[in-house]
Amino acid sequence: MIIFGTRTKVLTNKSQSAVGDCDYCGTAQSLFAYRQIKYFHIFWIPIFPYSAQIIMICNHCKKLSYQSEIKPQTLQSLSSRTIRKTPIGYFTGLMLIGLLVAAIVIAGISGAKKKEKYLKDTKVGDLYEVSYPKDGKTMRTLYPIANLTADSVTFDVNDYEADSRKGLRKLKEQDADCYAEQRKLSRSEVEEMKRRISNIERF
User: Fold this and answer.
1) Do strands 31-42 and 197-201 pair parallel, antiparallel, or not at all (unpaired)?
2) What are phi and psi of 136, to 5 degrees?
3) Three-state DSSP class for residue 195
4) Cβ of 130: how many Cβ atoms within 10 Å?
5) CA-CA distance, 179 to 181, in Å (whole number)?
6) Is residue 154 within 8 Å of 147, Cβ to Cβ?
7) Which contacts qualify for 136-145: CB closer than 8 Å, 24 or more apart?
8) pTM for the full model?
9) Where would you tag: which of 18, 68, 105, 160 has the fewest CB atoms within 10 A of its CB?
């Protein structure tokens, strides 16, 4: 069960000095200013803040004033005071997402480089994961290299196919030795097939 939602947090200040008199109850030096943030969380981990504003609270009568209710000149005077900024920890989720995206991009680049390297230097036993359209679906199967010549590549063709990456992994685990057919392709045909090769494994 995924627990997610929004929360509100009033940040404490480095300096707890009053910022003025309360216009509501008239108590001198009873107003304190804070930054209030609202943020989205998943499993209580802050993902990102979606709202931030300055609020003022009277320590005597507890009157709360939101930023839209505070006089512009008062807000301007607060800009030079030590109201705490939004901590970087409230962007944890965005940072984790950024790291995940970066890892996926790096893995994709690394996989693409590996595939290009293996295509240029083919070896018997290389296992190609190949996709192709069939009945409106994208099907996947395994093409291990059985034989090589200067002009051609002969593949064993797996007897089974899968319609998802998960199914292909299952095929590799359960039917990796089921090959009753071979397919001989010229080097140029293998080059044309490159875009349909999702991965190459070398053992």
Assistant:
1) unpaired
2) 80, 5
3) helix
4) 21
5) 6
6) yes
7) 137/163, 138/163, 139/163, 140/164, 140/165, 140/167, 140/168, 140/171, 140/198, 141/168, 141/171, 142/168, 142/171, 142/172, 142/176, 143/183, 144/179
8) 0.59
9) 68
The position carrying tokens 């030795």 is 177
Residue 64 CB contacts under 8 Å (≥ 6 apart), including other chains = 55, 56, 57
What are the pLDDT digits (tens) for 126-184? 999 999 999 999 999 999 999 999 999 999 999 999 999 899 999 988 888 899 999 99
Q: How far apart are CA 84 and CA 120, in angstroms?
A: 57
- The residue type found at 46 is P
The structure tokens 């290389």 sit at 126
Strand arrangement, sheet containing 4-11: 4-11, 31-42, 45-58, 64-65
Copy the structure tokens of residue 19: 């910022």
